[in-house]
Amino acid sequence: MDSRRQLFLQGPITRALVTLAIPIILGNVLQTGYQLSDAFWVGRLGAASVAAVSVSFPVTFLVIALGSGLAMAGATLSAQYMGAGRQDMVDHVAAQTMVMVAITSVILGSLGFILAPYLLDLLGVAPDVHAGALGFMRVSFIGIIFVFIYAMFQALMRGVGQTRIPLYIVMAAVSLNFALDPLFIFGLGPLPGLGVMGAALATLVTQALAAAFGIYIFLRGRHGIKLRWASLKPDLPYIRRAFLLGFPGSIELSTRGLGLMIMSFLVASFGTVTIAAYGVGSNVLQVVTIPAMGLSMAVSTLVGQNIGAGNIERAARITVLGTILGFVILTLVGILAWVGAERIVAFFIPNDPQVITEGASFIRTMSLAWGCVGIQLSIVSTFRASGNMLMAMVIALVAQWMVQFPMAYVLSKHTVLQAHGLWWSFPVTNVVVAVVSVCWFLRGSWKTTRLTEEEQQTAKVSQETIIEDSIR
């Protein structure tokens, strides 16, 4: 840990970014294995089962997003305290974050379990889908506590710069999930098949094992964090501070999840071909952003540790380099996607020329500004790492509710572009958000926040200052 800390605080920035980013990127790729595994096995049950998983996912995603701000707060505080050399506070942050996670997950999981049938009724789920969706959703809500605990483990380990251990755990968990899915879905011998609910149960088991292993690693204390049972006594002042710090992050992620649902409604009004094209393009976009997300998480860790150590200008250089790398990487990927757009869509839907044509148009249009996605991800990660979660939240809200949705509606419903207006809302929004992010970064107000200083204002006061600055 000492050699890694020296690399992060004093060593070559490019080497530090690569050291952190590669395991994170690989872990993110493997994490998608849960969805791919479920899709692969559930798809063999029929359309109703696939629909049951599709209906349940946005609801569970929103619940998980509500608790994700705690992960952001934990990662930010652990990174800054690690940079400041405060191992005692790193351990304290880990313990208190786990306490908050346990309480939050029990509350949200219980509410979700109880309200699940009412949520499905509200969504107007078809009768042949309802039973499978209810079983899948309720098992998923039972397993929320394990999802939260492991997510916190990943975030805290990332905060102290340890990204390899989570990668190994995810690798094992995804492999086990792929093996358990058919066993629980279809049954074997005396073990009955549970249908679509079996997919949720397989995920619950593997996430529970991953969470237990994460806690075990914390208790051993050999990888940057030492968890002590005595430290699990709730520290109310810290919990309040972490909640105020992380709450904007929860709102940001929840807004993004809700935005996906709203955009889906708008796309659905243009018919099956547009829906299919949007589905393929969205999947491609998720894959494309994986390296940029990994790079932005590495930027966040390095910036947080250097701010904690007082290396503010080095933190700024890290952000600039991460931004340039993100822009270059996603621009190159965008060029490749432009050239091979038809082939990409045909890989998913090989026998529908209309969908291939429309999907290729979507990919080519949004790939024009993929480099700008790399810019905004790196800069927003710096805002989070400095403790300015409100900045990231405001950017997300402006991007979706003031730029993309209004533009998508106007261009698609009130111009000759029709469905192509939906596609153009993506690159225009990415360019606007990238410009806003760069301007806000250059303003430098993020440099004034250092959460490790005892005399520093509380997170709430810092957020109020940002609001006042924005108004002025």
From TrEMBL:
Superkingdom as given in the UniProt entry: Bacteria
Residue intervals passing through the bilayer: 12-30, 50-77, 98-120, 132-153, 165-188, 194-219, 258-278, 284-303, 315-341, 361-383, 390-410, 422-442
Membrane topology: Multi-pass membrane protein
UniProt keyword terms in alphabetical order: Cell membrane, Membrane, Transmembrane, Transmembrane helix, Transport
One Pfam family named in its UniProt record: MatE
Subcellular location(s) per record: Cell inner membrane
Claim: Signal is one of the keywords in the record: no
Name of the protein described by the UniProt record: MATE family efflux transporter
Organism per entry: Dongia soli
